[in-house]
Amino acid sequence: MGDAAVGFRVHSGWATAVLLAGPAAGPEVADRRVVQLADPEVPDSRQPYHAGLDLPKGEAARIVARLVRSVEQFARRSLIDLFKSYRVGGHRLLAAGIVVGSNVDPAMIKNDHIRAHAEEGQLFRVVIQDAVQSRGLALPVTVTVEKELFVTASRKLGIPERRLKEKVGALGRQLDGPWRAEERAAALAAWVVLLRRR
């Protein structure tokens, strides 16, 4: 099996996943896709903490808890299917990188609406981490805030930031369709952890 690493760019209810394989000095995109983390049959599960904002405290807690359980169960199945498809495709995962918008502790945020966004960001990051670190896979995971990604990756890969942006952009040239910002971020996160595991 070929060694590979997966990167995720987390969003509310979904993530972009990019699988990089090949030599760490010059990997190639082996797969890219959107992974649903919230059940499309349960629309409020995309933003479970928002669903409780305008409700009495006890009712809000019950609804949010139910939606969070739904997310955890659905995301676990989605991610197991993703990892199985990689294995069937002949890839041996070495590590995972996760890119997030923020790593602020939601408890430190006073505004209810902004705190709900932070709680959702944390939830969707954690469900990926839990799946990647589960007994069957147990991969090392690195979490990076998006605005720090290129600076951190430049230092770890030993490539100047401007050149690194060019190289990450070039990874998408082999693919059909656009090579979006969230795909580039996920690819870079995968590249960093692939190099570190080698």
Bulk shape: globular
How are the strands of the biggest sheet laid out side by side? 3-2-1-4-5
Can you summarize the main beta sheet? Answer: 5 strands, mixed
What is the highest CATH level, the class? Answer: Alpha Beta
Which consecutive residue ranges, at least 5 long each, have pLDDT under 50? Answer: none
Instruction: Count up the domains.
Output: 1
Query: SSE order, as H and E?
Result: EEEHEHEHHH
> CATH homologous superfamily, by name?
ATPase, nucleotide binding domain
- Distance N to C terminus: 15 Å
Structural class: alpha/beta
Number of helical runs?
5
Q: Give the DSSP E fraction (strand runs of 2 or more residues).
A: 15-25%
Output mean pLDDT.
92
Radius of gyration in whole Å, from Cα? 17 Å
Helicity range = 40-55%
CATH architecture assignment name: 2-Layer Sandwich
Quick one: how many beta strands?
Answer: 5
